[in-house]
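Re: export button greyed out
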Amino acid sequence: MSARCRQTLSWWLIRAQFRSRRAATLLSMLAIALGVALGYAIHLINDAALADFARAMKSVQGDPDAVIAARDSAGSVPLATLNEIARDPAVLVVAAVIETRVRIDNARTPVTLIGLDLFSAAAVMPKLLPRQDPQAATGNILAGGIYASPALLGQLGLRAGATLTLVRGAQQWRTTIAGDLPAARPDELLLVADIAWVQEHFGPADAVSEGRVRLAPDTDLESWRSGLAQRLPAGLLVRAAEDDSARVSNLSRAYRVNLNVLALVALLTGAFLVFATQLTAVAQRSTQFALLGVLGLSPRMRLLQVLLEGLAIGAPGAMLGLALGYALAVAFTHVLGGDLGGGYFSGSAPLIVPALVPALVFLALGCLASLAGACYPAYLNRMQPLAQALKTGFAQGPAAGETARSRLPLLPLLLAPAAFALTQLPPLRELPIGGYAAIALVLVVGIASAPLLTQLVFGWLSERPLPAPQRIALQNVAQAPLMAQVAASGLIVSFALTASMVIMVSSFRVAVDHWLDHVLPAPLYLRSKATPLPQELLAALQQPDAPFARIERMANEALTIDPQRPKVALLVRELERRNPAARLPFTGPLLEPPADMPVVWISEPMAEIYRLAPGQTLQLPLLGRTVEVFIGGVWRDYARQFGAIAISRDDYLQLGGDFQPTDLALWPLPGKETAADAWLAPWSTRYGLEVADSAAIRQLSLSIFDKSFAVTYALEAAAMLIGLFGLAVTLAASVWLRARELATLGALGFDRRMLSRAVMLEGALIAVVGLLIGLACGVAIGAILTHVVNPQAFHWRMSLDIPWTAVLAGALLTLAAAVVASHYAARQATRLPVAQVLASAQ
Amino acid sequence: MLTVTDLAKRHRRARRPLFSALDFSVAAGEIVALVGESGVGKSTLLNCIAGLETADSGSIAIGPQALDIVRLDESARAALRARSIGFVFQAFHVLPTLTVAQNIGVPLLLCGIPTSEHPARTQALLDGVGLAGFGPRWPASLSGGELQRVAIARALVHRPALILADEPTGNLDPRTADEVLALLLERVREQQTSALVVTHSQHVAQCCDRTLTLTPDGLR
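Workaround output, generated via the alternate export path:
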């Protein structure tokens, strides 16, 4: 058989298959498209967000060979240290930079102000170089002018020559816009001024935020950096530009992997639908394939033909998925931002740029999923006994054999302990690979249990006193359960995934709700975004006329413990050394600290990421030096995924820290709640402060929580639809395969209603079997997600909370939908042309 | 064109062979009827000759090259069927999702005959079986007699060495059966093809050149 003849015959058969099974083929295609689209969209968004961040970093930071910075966000790099580094012959230039956050007039959101030295900046950070406005009648950069990025000018509605006031805590600087930053990125909100002027108004004296170093071309960068790292004081670090990329990538890595696993699940359900479609197609066309075999189509070609048909579903589906993925990426970045609601990156929506290689990879994944779905049907087609299939139609293969039946319970029994063992594995490269593998295995256990349960349920019921059509239908399924198992498997997979997500999200939400109770004890909160609160306000709050019974002050800083990891939050709070549990939700015992040592309490993520435990001491890079602190306990924190350390204000002050509160917790005097709001209002307006009551913060937190799970809700819905569609398709195919049996019953006098009821009963029972196993698997997967995946990927621990009402309501709804789906199959059964079916060989 | 030598077949759990020591041949252009009681093994013998079931011993030589289908593997048997055997079934077995012309074209594709030759050969066969103009039609719109004519055209289109027909008129009314049988025999003779026709009908058997009767004791 020549290649051309083979192609022609394949094409005829593919076209015939598509023509006769339009709906099933189209939906399989759409399911594959959905999986590819989600995976590709996540890839595109993440790629764009990371590239966007890298561009932003390059724009602000330039392209230095090394950056010298303080480990503590409150710390700074002494100018003396930078001068010493500049004397190194390997160093070409050191650009000193002060980077701080200031508010413009009384705007609420602060912007970044960069103070730089014009001459060294030209060598290291050319994109930050300002352009003097020829019209502005102001001095230049050296004379105290300030330069704004075009985006900021646009946002403020100001032009060169305008005057503005920059505010940071109690410090203010009234200055004039002298020009713009022509090389700034279009969405960048940035101010640039001469370093000396910034230092004069906002500090720090004799120190800077960072030193950005350009080395001589022949310098070995790695060894220079490691040599410097050893010489630097403990409070400073040297980092490479790659560290920033790694840090940002690590920031969203677990969330990204989790979304990709969800996309993979969508792709797998797509593959399952291809499996159901192709299996029913093979079953329905068994006589045709047998005829082609008799006429001379080789067994290999019969196998290949079904695989090709799978590919013919997968390839267009995957291509559609790529287009859909691109559209989704564009839409998601505009609606949810570059982190899909994860809250990791800020700023405007990144630009989505598709690349060829990833697109080809996702195209291949879609095709592979489809081919995987077509494998078993292709194998069954290859193994059909031609003479028998030509005479009696589809033979279900060895599954119904006695030996196979006796082995049925063995597979789940073997795999269930393996799944449990996988959950006990530690994370691999900080990813819960064991947990994901255990989930896959639980699904396999569920599907492998289906034959046993199907035979038990249907076998037992078929011996009950039921009307003949029902009993015959049940006996038929018990004897030849392949199609019922396929239908049940679809429901098992889709319901297990949906139930597990509902269980995990509910457990998480309940845990967050309880946690918020603990961390929001005050009725009112006030905060200044990253800049210290004005001293004037703090002083006014101490006055007798302030309508507050109690005030707690907090300061937030950030520490770099590992340059490749996101920073760890340092929370300086008015906590009692002996009773921190009044404000922090501890998860374990609280240890008494040694009297002469400062104590810190670390969050759960901190303990897990850095493998720390209560009772240990920790060398903390704090206040420009290394401080040995005692770990007094571990507290639950769902707000800071990358770790947080709480320290009492007294310990912080004793260490020499400057406590500049950024947040306040306020308890209004009884009955003075309205007066408290009125008292705070002018301060809020004047200094751009945020005031919120605990109920609003709780609502906002939960809405952010819900937003971050928006994608998973969409996937749950898609999974359920696919499962139900699989049920409808397989039931319809099952009716078709039993056309002669049903027609015989019709000829013997059973009316349409009786036949319809029999098929609907069969569908409902298959759904019950699928839902029962799906529910068991869903609870198991929910537990794995809650107790293994969440702690290992996100360092969030919580207890399992199964929302039985929601889960059982979902099961009942699915059962109702399954009955509706089987009604579709029942209609097929009642519309069979009895005489024609009985007359034909089929 | 068909030579069966010392052929034996026993079903897996049967105590005695279904048939054994069968020897017969069908010459080029000869039409032989195979008759016998139900269950005697006519269909199994036909399946063995087609390579759909494997004989326990003996040989079955088909075509001018006398290839022994018993000794071939599954793929080679399929290739031999595609090249050298045409089939006509009682139940027609016309593919419902392909047009009449495509149905007739399937053996040409399986033989690897260049597609440029297909339209002419298909058309000639359609004319020959009295279905001129039926090429683009779907099988669902055809009567039983017309479907069997399509099956005959499909069996002959690639000019096989052997036609195996299993009750070719069993599903047709007597008048149509006569017409279809006459057509089959005429075309087979015209192409000088060997044919083995399994039938229960004495009338069909009488129309053939020779009759073989399969009994539990062997061929008569």
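The radius of gyration of chain A is 34 Å. The button fix ships in the next patch.
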